[in-house]
Amino acid sequence: MGIDVELHSARPARSWKKARATFLRGCYDPASSLADALGSLHYLGVPGRLTAVDLYGDTVMNEQEAAAALTEVPGLKERCADERQRSALDGLAAMLRDCADTPGSYVWLAGD
């Protein structure tokens, strides 16, 4: 189970195929490192937007939500179990930063 993170120029359509029209770039999680990090922190009771990401469904954030979630990353990295989880959070932070810096954009986190 991984979490795919995509940056879109506008709110993505619910259909993956139709969402390609607004797709800018993606960051994928084939080793499930991001899912492991967010899931384990959720089960530990760590509060925040990122630990509330649906690991099995879709979570969409606009630029303001992405900016708020970005502030959570340093604290989450301190609580990660290993380097691969911290690296996955770095990749997520880059996508959140790009979204926060791009008016009208959205981040789509697609769980398995």
How many helical stretches?
5
Helices and strands, in N-to-C order? EHEHEHHHE
Described by the principal axes of the CA atoms, the overall outline is globular
Report the biggest beta sheet as strand number plus sense, adding barrel if it closes.
Answer: 4 strands, antiparallel
SS content category: alpha+beta
Distance between the termini: 5 Å
Q: Taking Cα atoms only, what radius of gyration do you get, to the nearest Å? A: 13 Å
Oligomeric form: single chain
Number-wise, the strands total 4
Q: What is the average per-residue confidence, as pLDDT, rounded to a whole number? A: 93
Beta percentage is: 15-25%
Name the helicity range: 40-55%
Care to describe what's here?
By secondary structure, the protein is an alpha+beta fold. Helices cover 43% and strands 18% of the residues. The protein is built from five helices and four strands, in the order E-H-E-H-E-H-H-H-E. Helix 3 runs antiparallel to helix 5 (83-100). It is globular. The model has no long low-confidence stretch (mean pLDDT 93).
